[in-house]
Amino acid sequence: MIRVTILYPNEQGAWFDLGYYLDSHIPLALDRLGSAVKGVWVDHGIGAGSQGPRPPFFAMCHFLADSSEAYEKALDPHREELAQDIGNYTNVKPLIQFSEVRLSR
């Protein structure tokens, strides 16, 4: 299994509309990615612990998939549509990481 993590940095002057992200963008992504996505988690940054009150990321989205190839194959026909929607909920460039799930409880 792989996890695709999309991080939205909490940069100076940046904004993020969590309501739009949860109510519109994530349902759109799930519809387009279909059965390639086995699970999704969205985290909303609320702080940075001892580093201060400002979280380093507005939000993080985690998609679970069987493989990076399966995820990319499902994403490819919809990549442009999903990328164009980003401006509706943030003005930051998301960071993306593919990870191999090594432990899950």
UniProtKB/TrEMBL annotation:
Give an example GO molecular function.
oxidoreductase activity
SUPFAM superfamilies, per the entry: Dimeric alpha+beta barrel
InterPro entries attached to this UniProt entry: Dimeric_a/b-barrel (IPR011008), EthD_dom (IPR009799)
Supply the NCBIfam families for this chain. EthD family reductase (TIGR02118)
Please identify the protein, giving its name as recorded.
Answer: EthD domain-containing protein
* Species of provenance: Marinobacter daqiaonensis
Taxonomy of the source species = Bacteria, Pseudomonadati, Pseudomonadota, Gammaproteobacteria, Pseudomonadales
